[in-house]
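Example 3.2
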Amino acid sequence: MRVSLRDVAERAGVSIKTVSNVVNNYPHVTPAMRARVQAALDELGYRPNLTARHLRKGRTGIIALAVPELGNPYFAELAGAVIDAATEHEFTVLLDHTRGEREQEILVTRGFRGGVIDGLILSPLALEAEDLEGRSDDVPLVLLGEREYGLPFDHIAIDNVAAARCAVRHLLGRGRTRIAYLGVRTDSVNRPAHLRLGGWRAELTAAGVPAPDSLVVPVGGWDRDDGARAMAELLDSGVRPDAVFAFNDLIAIGAMRVLHERGLRVPWDVAVVGFDDIAEGRFGAVTLTTVSPDKQAIAKMAVASLLRSLSGREEPGGRELTAKFELVERESTLGRR
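Structure, written as tokens:
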């Protein structure tokens, strides 16, 4: 049987209003009274009715997170971070899987969850700016990832160009000069692969190192098998890099498998850097050097942005919020210690 505020009030010998003040952490309760009520709450095992609390505010207590692929470890880890951040504010997270398809991304932004969610956090891949122009759904929207829209919705990302330059600078510092880039996509110039490619090219150019197109390998997707195919294609073309910078860790892991099969040692023959810092990269036979976005910060910023919109304050959206990143150096560029 659910414990009510009345049950707690009777146990503590106080009014229901006093119990409510303690549960809602209102300041105008004396320390002695707060301790008395808290003891009764703990003794009875009281749990607040979050649904009722949200409904009193005209909310459902649910926010949605829509990502391209839940099977991708980066998005799975990001989803966990968003759930943790939302839980701190007593919100539940509904997960949507868009498969990176434009039609599905449009659908989630146009209120198909109408009446169910209080806000939407979306990490788009194929969505175009015109798909969001004139959006009529009044559910607050926050965008994640590296696509740049210039629209009145808060956008949270890391600096992809700076992150890519950091990765390439590390490889240059290890004496590598034929650094391949695996992971460019040819279907949209706004996708993050192009920002990372731009960082790759900019850092090589700044260092006076050639950045020929022969070292850039396109992919059809961003999974392990895509990395394996791209690495095999590069080697089969007769181009022999001494380092690889991959769009993400999955591509890097696929590339390392092919390097192993071709008898090339990582990092001695070919050094490899990934991007995302997924858990899998920490446990391979050769651990993976990678760019590590601050996923917890991204999640907290996204949830805070939604709460800002839900607060009722008339504040303009469209802020560009940047999370930090770091380069985590491991065996794929340093060798075993």
